[in-house]
Amino acid sequence: MRNYNFSAGPSMLPLPVLEKVQKNLLDYEGNGISVMEMSHRSKPYQAINDQAEALLRELMGVPENYDVIFVQGGASMQFEAVPLNLHKNGKADYVVTGNFSGKAYKEAQKYGDMKEAASSADRNFTYIPALEKGMFRTDADYVHICYNNTIFGTKYNAIPDTGDVPLVADISSCILSEELDVSKFGVLYAGAQKNVGPAGVTIVIVRKDLQNMASNVCPTMMKWSTQIKEKSLYNTPPCFSTYVAMETFRWLKGLGGVKAIEQINREKAALLYDFIDNSSFYCNAVEKPFRSPMNVPFVSPSEELDKEFVSAAQKEGLLTLKGHRLVGGMRASIYNAMPIEGVRKLVDFMKRFEKEHK
Ligand SMILES: *Cc1c(COP(=O)(O)O)cnc(C)c1O
């Protein structure tokens, strides 16, 4: 039996995608071998690589003046790739809204004059600070934000205006979950293991005019232009992860694309947040305008009850609800692959647990 997995990442994959992958596992489309065993220079893999890019472009509406690459190293490697690739004046501004944006800021400091333009640390990252153009240095190479904060459960509700300074965003935990105007960004990046596929592949989307400003010491493997030139095949790519990502893109397109999943995601989030807000037992600390539709942290009246909640939920097939150690309590990650039935089952369980422990 399949459980509902609320893990923040690696997280649930859509069942039809897993079934398709299973069907193709031993013999990929009549080639008599698995994608895992295939040369990345072979025709069938080239087709997978091309399809993955084409589908992602279509789903996200990526404009012509952007390149899309599939690389390794996770979002964490991009924390360093960003300052090394966007290195004209050697200075950049960071908005710190949680753990990952803090890490990105910290790594970047090794490579230049980095400034924290704003932070929400004063209230334990329960909101997104108000941002305006004047807060950023006009000669900064870029402004970096984390669009959805996986651990603290916050999300930007508008794309900040950075004027002529390119905006770079980590969208690891919200990619393809709702419509996003790519043209407002210079660079977007996301690890696959939240909304796209298995860990191991990272998506980077780079505007063409930002591809010739890498630092001299930028490692060849981290340089976006290296992979852009070779269509993500400079070296052996994470073939299997990219293949599964392609199947996820197909699945999403079949559902009606990002617009359709956004509607479903809204319903799922409303179901859970409305229940929490109407309960005197559970509490979500995030300021309402900044609540993430993907990651929903909440607490019960005590740490003992939190622990009991997590283990009782596990017994009912509601997995990985323990909150991140930085926040405590519980966290339900309800990415694209989580069906609304999973959220209903969670809410039903929460009701029962509340009744039994009030
Ligand atoms: C998970 C996550 C990361 C870290 O991703 P890795 O692939 O483990 O490097 C970075 N940023 C955000 C927003 C995330 O959700």
Descriptive report:
The protein is an alpha/beta fold. The protein contains nine helices and 13 strands. Strands 2-10-9-8-5-3-4 form a seven-stranded mixed sheet. The chain has a two-stranded parallel sheet with strand order 1-12. The mean pLDDT is 98. The site of pyridoxal-5'-phosphate has 12 residues, from α3.
Bound molecules: pyridoxal-5'-phosphate
Oligomeric grouping of the chains: single chain
Approximate strand percentage: 15-25%
- Briefly note the structural class of the backbone: alpha/beta
Query: What distance separates the N and C termini?
Result: 31 Å
Radius of gyration: 21 Å
Poorly predicted residue ranges = none
- Give the tally of β-strands: 13
Query: SSE order in H/E notation?
Result: EHHEHEHEEEEEEEHHHEHEEH
Q: Count the helices. How many?
A: 9
